[in-house]
Amino acid sequence: MDARNILGMIALAAALACSRGQTSVRTAQGVQPVTERRQLFVLPAGYQGPVLVIYDQSEGARPKVLNGEIVYDVPRDGIVRTVLPEEVLAGAKIRFVYQSRPALAQFHNCAQMRLQGLASDPTGVCWLAIQVVTSGVPDHAVYIVTDWVGIPVNYNRGAHMLDSLFFGPTGSSKFKWEEPKAPPGANSKSARARVSPHEATLQIAALR
Q: How confident is the model over 27-83, as pLDDT tens digits?
């Protein structure tokens, strides 16, 4: 992979549109070519917690391509190691589903999900971080699958996963959950009205 000058964590808030999509996993008789950048993460039944995708792993999994979509099967530990490079993220439409269920709603980040969601909402996905580095840490992306009540715990689980795999016990990922404060004059009803119904699209440009 070409050397990059991009270090540290890249904020995702400006890069994503939120999802309320209703597309389910479909089976296919054979593997089909990818016609556009679409990626689907199939979660274990009832899974909540971080999903960490680690790219450029020589012994990682090569995901299936079904119906023109790259499909990752997320293991129970939430860690997806793939041979694919992080360049597959550029301009990709990304969805998370439980088997044969509608796609989960997505939020720009976990603070947005906390402010706009309700305790009665179903499980959704909020985005923690993506990191492209040259210091020997593999390129990776972290997503948090959680219901509203579980956001703090699952967010911190994602931070701990980053620390344990890449940064050691010192907590160098610098992620720690803090309850967000709503902007002055905002309320949950008006905030929820701003949630976009479109598929989440990760638009990371010129990472090379």
A: 333 334 444 589 999 999 999 999 999 999 999 999 999 988 999 999 999 999 999
Higher pLDDT, 108 or 190: 108
Structure tokens at 5: 């000058």
In the three-class reduction of DSSP (H, G, I as helix; E, B as strand; rest coil), residue 94 is classed as strand
Closest listed residue to residue 110, CA positions, set 153, 151, 67: 151
97/106 Cα distance (integer angstroms): 11
Amino acid (1-letter code) at residue 107: F
Strands (E), 36-121: 38-43, 49-54, 64-66, 69-73, 79-81, 92-98, 105-107
The owner of tokens 């090379």 is 208
Q: Tell me the domain boundaries of the chain.
A: 9-175
Residues 21 and 199: their CA atoms lie apart, in Å, by 6
| Residue 40 DSSP label | E
CA–CA separation, 165 and 39 (whole Å): 24
